[in-house]
Amino acid sequence: MINSRLLAIIRKEFIQIIRDPRTLAIMFVMPVIMLFLLGYAATNDVRNVPIAIFDQDRSAAARDLLNAYRNADYFSFSFDVDSVEEMKVLIDSGQAKAGLIIPPDYGRRITQGDQAQVAFVIDGSDPTVAGTALSAATLIGQTKATAVLRATLETRGQSGAIQPPVEIRTQVWYNPDLVNAYFTIPGLIGMILQFLAVLLTSTAIVRERERGTIEQLIITPIRAWELIVGKLAPYVIISFFELLEILIIGTLWFKVPINGDLGLLLALSALFLVTTLGIGLLISTLAKTQFEAMLLAVVTQLPSIFLSGFFFPIAAMPAFLQVISYLVPLRYFLTIVRAVQIKGVGLISISNEVITLAIFGVIVMGVAVGRFHKRLD
Predict the structure, then answer these.
(1) What's the longest Cα–Cα distance across the chain?
(2) Which H or E run contains 119?
């Protein structure tokens, strides 16, 4: 038989949630806003970099070179300039991020089989854009140089001389088109779940204390565990609704597939929720007001977000930050959700992350429940 006191607490919490339009907006609108904003904004894909072209040759060979850069989809030919000074003004003002300078003898050198030098100037003030532009420009240049060399040797009947001794054939698994959303959308599942679960749980319990109603609950026959479970259960249900909301939008709008077992993904998300709800409960034992609880929730989330590998690769961090990242539960959940959703792996492949996350959940929830129980006493 279901505990009637526990059901009463859960029903009371749902009524409070429904009567608070601000909380409802945070619960159901905020995940969608965060998903769309971060789904589009949190990307390392650099495309259509505006560049200025200073073509001093205007030959057919120069047009072939420009077409090679244009067809790569990395660059946008935004400006056609007549001098290096004009190009510098555009780069200094930020209107152009790079510049391509073709010398006046480019076509003649290519036709004669001589080496032709082309200058590619990059604005390094934005390392992300500059790094992508540098890699793309180098690769396109090498590819075009190989094509020109092959054409030259073929005209001389020496096409066999350009066969490379080693051929590298690359394969990209799980995400052949290297779509950035395949990385960011699964990561947003963990980040949004953690942020909302911690924020809503901590403020909901503090709200009872701030209004003085928690003292009324304490003097009732309700046991401490019933109060804890009754307060947390609605947010578990809501968190699962938000999880499904993110999965549906990510699949239908961002076209991110779910290649793994959906049941396994939901079960491991529940395991992660144990940790996040424990953090929220722990904050509720420290904060005295809702504002203080919200502030603590935000402060605790920042290190987690930046050290989890969502925005920045953990391998690129300094050694001491990599060590600290092992204390971040979100790090393990991001590995889990990406492995299950994108790679379609089973439980065995991610067993280390699951075990570690379970240990975190037991410790955090245990400490939180112990402190909360003392506050009730």
Answers:
(1) 98
(2) strand 119-122
Cβ–Cβ < 8 Å for 181, 256: yes
Q: How many residues does the chain have?
A: 377
Q: What is the spatial distance between Cα 325 and Cα 229, in angstroms, rounded to a whole number?
A: 30
Query: Same domain for 21 and 65?
Result: no
Rounded to a whole number, what is the distance in angstroms from the first to the last CA of the chain?
28
pTM over 0.90: no
Q: How many separate domains does the chain show?
A: 2
Q: Which residue has the tokens 């492949």?
A: 349
* Chain segment 50-83, per-residue pLDDT in tens: 999 999 998 988 898 899 888 877 888 889 999 9
DSSP for 16-83, please give it. Answer: HHHH-HHHHHHHHTHHHHHHHHHHHHS------EEEEEEES--SHHHHHHHHHHHHTSSEEEEEE-SS
| Same domain membership, residue 133 and residue 236 | no
168 inside domain: no
Q: What are phi and psi of 101, to 5 degrees?
A: -115, 115
Pair 331, 353: CB distance under 8 Å: no
Range of the domain at 217: 4-42+180-376
- Examine the domain organization and report whether 133 and 225 are in the same domain: no
Does residue 271 belong to any structural domain of this protein?
A: yes
Give me the phi and psi of 293, to 5 degrees please.
-65, -40
